[in-house]
Task: structure prediction
Amino acid sequence: MAEPPPPVLVVAGAVKEYGAAVKTRALAGVDLTIGPGELTALIGPSGSGKSTLLNLIGLLDRPTAGTIVLGGHDTSTLDERGLTALRARMLGFVFQFHHLLPAFTALENVLLPSWGDRGRPTADARAAAEAMLRAVGLADRLHYKATDLSGGQQQRVAIARALAHRPPLVLADEPTGNLDTASSAEVFALMRRFNRELGTTFIVVTHDPRIADQCDRIVELVDGRVVSDRPVPPAPG
Ligand SMILES: Nc1ncnc2c1ncn2[C@@H]1O[C@H](COP(=O)(O)OP(=O)(O)O)[C@@H](O)[C@H]1O
Ligand SMILES: [Mg+2]
Result:
């Protein structure tokens, strides 16, 4: 029998406390294993720890206790440089508020992460960014300023930016939380398409049951604990 593929992510016993004098325990011991190519919905009431968990997985913050193993690397052994390098290689981020720079064009926003110490992005980076913007249906908007795009279009730029460097894992924190129903459906459909076509693994925080029900798996947090972790049955018909 073939070996199962190694997980993209293993969270083990993750605890996160905020504050010094008065401690808030945002995560109370979370275990979560995510396999390659899964599209997982992370749900739960406001304050249940969803964003905290995504921040730990995204290497934006460290757990108070427990470990995050990303792509086989135990991140507790890494210093800031190591975390930054692993983040750049492994992760893409999509947030509720897209965090596009308003004075820059769609193309410039997708290219921004590749403006590094070495100056201007390479021709390859530029070609990849243009291809991503075409893939999200914005071929005719490359040179529009972010502020001249609709909310749904801006979020599609954010998805193009998150995926341009082909990270194996994309973390999306309420990516459709600020969109109308039609734009939400479009944005989710794009994530599903990249999941299928590129094999990208997604963890999507959502309050929208219609979106959660289209994922492969639903993990529910309450009070910083996983209270339910279930596969989504295939849609009938
Ligand atoms: N930076 C922070 N400092 C202190 N408390 C925080 C911070 N971030 C989140 N919390 C607290 O941690 C808990 C979980 O928050 P969060 O992860 O944002 O939940 P969710 O994303 O599910 O709404 C809440 O009680 C919240 O008030
Ligand atoms: Mg949140």
About this structure: Helices lie at 50-57, 80-90, 106-111, 123-135, 151-163, 181-198, 209-212.
